[in-house]
Amino acid sequence: MAIMPVTDSMFLLAEAREHPMHVGGLQLFELPDGAGPDYVSDLHRQLLETVDVRPLFRRRPRGPVGVLGQFAWTNDDQLDVEYHVRHSGLPRPGRIRELLELTSRLHGTLLDRHRPLWEFTIIEGLGDNRFATYSKIHHALLDGVSALRLLGSTLSEDPDDRGVRPPWSPPVRTDVFDRPGRRDADPPDPFAAVSAFVKEVAGLGSAAARVVNEAFREQSATLAFQAPKSMFNVPITGARRFAAQGWPLERIRAVGRASGTTVNDVMLAMCSGALRQYMIDLGRLPDRPLVAAVPMSLRTRTPAGETALGGNAIGLILCDLATTDPDPTARLRTIHESMLRGKAVYHGMSRLQVTALSAIPLVPLAIGTIPGLTTVTPPAFNVMISNVPGPRRPLYWNGARMQGVYPLSIPYEGQALNITVTSYAESLEFGLTGCRRTVPHLQRLLGLLEESLTDLEKALC
Amino acid sequence: MAIMPVTDSMFLLAEAREHPMHVGGLQLFELPDGAGPDYVSDLHRQLLETVDVRPLFRRRPRGPVGVLGQFAWTNDDQLDVEYHVRHSGLPRPGRIRELLELTSRLHGTLLDRHRPLWEFTIIEGLGDNRFATYSKIHHALLDGVSALRLLGSTLSEDPDDRGVRPPWSPPVRTDVFDRPGRRDADPPDPFAAVSAFVKEVAGLGSAAARVVNEAFREQSATLAFQAPKSMFNVPITGARRFAAQGWPLERIRAVGRASGTTVNDVMLAMCSGALRQYMIDLGRLPDRPLVAAVPMSLRTRTPAGETALGGNAIGLILCDLATTDPDPTARLRTIHESMLRGKAVYHGMSRLQVTALSAIPLVPLAIGTIPGLTTVTPPAFNVMISNVPGPRRPLYWNGARMQGVYPLSIPYEGQALNITVTSYAESLEFGLTGCRRTVPHLQRLLGLLEESLTDLEKALC
User: Fold this and answer.
1) In terms of pLDDT, which residue wins out, B279 or A348?
2) With an 8 Å Cβ cutoff, is A95 touching chain B?
3) pLDDT for B372 beyond 50
4) One of A19, A138, A139, A336 is an active-site residue; which one?
5) Which of A241, B73, B121, B451 has the fewest C-beta atoms under 10 angstroms from its C-beta?
6) Region B220-225 average pLDDT
7) Distance (Å) of CA B401 to CA B36, B159, B161, B250, B425
8) Which among B80, B92, B113 is the nearest to A124, CB-wise?
9) Which of B184 and A6 is assigned the larger pLDDT?
């Protein structure tokens, strides 16, 4: 039994029925040539026969045990693989719509704390010769970025490779996942920033706190505006809606080239246009622009090939989404400038300052569910939008080509919608996770994202 | 907003991740003649179009609000029928096995307290021209017996009746379900006995408590044994296994006739034989016989046509299951005598005494999850076995014949297995709900129940 770090325990302590603290991934595969009607059943049976389970996937929480209310990790010596690895079917007609409904329901239930905190569901019944998997893992075990990377790292670039093992079974092509200490080499995970903040700031005196407070005032000042109250910043319920779709990276790059902006800027502009129209349709567009929280890697290469900041710091940038502006090109320009200003705030800061500053808007997540403690911090942003780099080449699972992979993240109290995108091969894959009650008709946002991109193309390309 | 009675709030307060306090029902239907491949999808769509939802199914809990920690009921003015009424598919090959796996998973997740406390899932993909429904309702809303009765009462005895409405939509053939005050006319629900106990005993002085204690000692004395420690009487986890099967009532009646025992005695003997063999196979048969808690209606007709007890009292009888005895006939005889002695204990008691005495072994359920409060009562029984009378004639849902209906009940701390049976037409339907971790291979009990009945038939018929 090993006492869990306070920072991992936090994700268990902060969890409530209203906001399960697990992340997920939906993967879509093509059935390989010659796959019979029992292909998925057979695959499921093979998965159950995998007896090698890596230590990370055998750990279960026990507690609270520590003086600070920490949990401990203990080994599950009765690991019940059939519990964790499930087989589900879709009802007819087996469209993406039915798949997303099932995924939404699976993502909205709590993991069982008496067992290792993960589930894997293989899903059949999709039309067009496809099947899917939905993976679910608790943030205390693995942060969202690492989880997504693990999913990819177990697949193969070789369509003929038949030695691909499931994510919970060693070996995989990278060994970072049993070593939490190497997390800082990961791309940005917003919730991990909270951990890092607690870890680095805990125990420091008031001088350090003053630095952080001053930096926060500085960032707020550069924004020159505050996040409005919006329909997304309210208490939430436990049920989820999930919507997902991929867009060709080339379309997004073309808009970037035509406007002198980055793929990330264009992605944010797509979100901005879609959210604007969504709120207009519901009659709930605030008269001040929405503010997005965007985690960014702040690693910048110097001429000497080194990084400007020591290591790979993650900064949370508050970005003006310009949702009050009807002109798509103007919105993109505002977003681009806002992101540049946001990054500039971090210039010359120490890593501790960067981390602390980034974590401040996320602190309500950590303290939001302690009974009786009212969060007095006003909402610092309206929606979190993360972009996680993914695999660049097509991947295969024992011959089954992965068509797409879509991240499911964590809405929480006051943050009813989360948008996480990831790149895969030549596609940018959007995963929208929302509170079912607060964010109605989430699927509509997919159509609006397409409209938003088309508007940019018409104006710029 | 109406404050909930303490007794209903109790089921919300006592609920934990480890033991959700909802009951369920699995119904199996034949597809009607001429049903096309979209029959179930169409049925689901029609169900979603039902806008009339009875008040009971619109209530959601709010709280705690009362001085005793009670919850209140409030009306859900954003009722989201699509959330409650779901459509699921089974993976191939669509056997009962796949259906029970799905049902186990559905029964193991908590209901969302931000919404009315029920879910209804219509399930397609079953072989042999069938489909199924799984209904889930919180015990605070409706006790298990009433829930099961409601499911039946909405169906029709007429195969040509096309006016059958879903359980959440008025009108149904009986109006008792919006009037909780009439619960005492129901057949026995064990958990309702806890409610009744709290309601009737709360506020009484020490004299009343003494009566109850003396009666409990009296019942314990008649048992002349105590429940052994068994594999079923341990802390449990939240995941469930569910197994279900029906047996022809005529087979059970024949054994009863041949032995001079009741259908209920024979049912208990089936359970006894099956549990004995199950524990032998696992090497975990205790050296003293298991004790079952059996809720029984104590209404007995006098020659004048009146009942011996005022009203319809529910007594919880502790029954010697004779699991140490290898002879099936001897086990049946012991069970028969134990049930007679158990009923005799209640003879001449007041209703309050009957209720209080019945509730004592169940009290750990109510207090088991208050943090820091250790239950000092030793386990008074090993397994709860309930028999709920059901519909006598075949029922139809707009032309689809119901083949079977199986109850899912509530395992709780120290009680990892619940067996509830119900009669339907000419069948006795068994529903076994267990903690997934504590009760492995629950399905095996179905085969053992059949063996157990066959053994009795061989010995007696």
Assistant:
1) B279
2) no
3) no
4) A139
5) B451
6) 54
7) 16, 7, 11, 21, 12
8) B92
9) A6
Which of B89, B109, B239 comes nearest A89 by C-beta? B89
Strand order in the sheet with B400-408: A396-397, A400-408, A22-30, A130-138, A118-126, A85-89, B85-89, B118-126, B130-138, B22-30, B400-408, B396-397
Q: Closest Cα of chain A to B436: distance in Å?
A: 9
Give contacts of A113 with chain B, Cβ < 8 Å.
17
Q: What is the pLDDT of residue A142?
A: 86
| Ranges under pLDDT 70 in chain A | 1, 5-7, 65-69, 171-188, 193-225, 299-313, 359-378
pLDDT band at B297 (very low <50, low <70, confident <90, very high): confident
Which of B345 and B394 is assigned the larger pLDDT?
Answer: B394
* Minimal C-alpha gap between B128 and chain A (Å): 17
CB pairs under 8 A between A and B: 93
Question: Which residues does A366 contact at the CB level (< 8 Å), separation at least 6?
Answer: A10, A14, A194, A198
CB contact under 8 A, A92 and B237: no
> Of B156-160, B174-178, B210-214, where does the model show the most confidence?
B156-160
The tokens describing A408, both together, are 């499911």
Pick from A433, A434, A388, A442: which is nearest to A150 by CA? A388
Full strand arrangement of the beta sheet holding B72-75: B2-3, B72-75, B59-62
A18, A40, A42, A87, best to mutate vs chain B, most B CBs in 10 Å: A87
Token digits for B202?
A: 């709360």
Same fold, B2-154 and B203-390+404-460: yes
Q: Taking the domains of chain A in order of start, what are their residue ranges?
A: 2-154, 203-390+404-460
Separation CA A442–CA A243 (nearest Å):
6
Rounded Cα–Cα distance for residues B268 and B295 (Å): 12
Does the beta-carbon distance from B98 to A89 stay under 8 Å? yes
Which CATH architecture fits A203-390+404-460? 2-Layer Sandwich (3.30)
- As beta bridge partners, residue B246 has B429
B28-66 residue pLDDT tens: 999 999 999 999 999 999 999 987 898 889 998 887 766
B109–A110: do the CB atoms touch at under 8 Å? yes
Q: Do the chains contact at A109 and B109, CB–CB below 8 Å? A: yes
Q: Is B139 a catalytic residue?
A: yes
Q: Tell me how far apart the alpha carbons of residues B295 and B292 are, in angstroms, rounded to a whole number.
A: 10
Q: Is A417 exposed, middle or buried (0-12, 13-18, 19+ CB in 10 A)?
A: buried
Using a CB-CB cut-off of 8 Å, the residues of chain A touching B86 are: 105
Beta strands in A234-346 (DSSP E): 240-248, 291-297, 314-320
Which residue, among A17, A19, A112, A122, would best test binding to B if mutated, counting the most B CBs under 10 Å from its CB? A112
Nearest to A17 among B83, B87, B113 (CB): B113
Please judge whether B237 and A18 are an interchain contact, meaning their C-beta atoms are less than 8 angstroms apart.
Answer: no
* pLDDT tier for residue B163 given thresholds of 50, 70 and 90: confident
| Residue B128, token pair as written in the block | 């042999």
ipTM of the complex: 0.84
Residues 6+ apart with CB under 8 A from B452: B269, B270, B271, B272, B273, B274, B277, B328
Contact B125 A89 (CB under 8 A): yes
In this structure, whether the domain defined by A2-154 belongs to CATH 3.30.559.10 is answered with yes
pLDDT digits (tens, 9 = 90+) for A167-180: 898 765 444 444 44
Q: Can you name the residues that pair with A429 across neighbouring β-strands?
A: A246, A422
At residue B57, the pLDDT reads 92
Asked if the C-beta of A113 comes within 8 angstroms of chain B's C-beta atoms, the answer is yes
Peptide bond into B91 cis (omega under 30): no
CA dist., res. A234 & res. A19, Å (int): 13
For the whole model, what pTM was predicted?
Answer: 0.88
Cross-chain Cβ contact A112/B40 below 8 Å: no
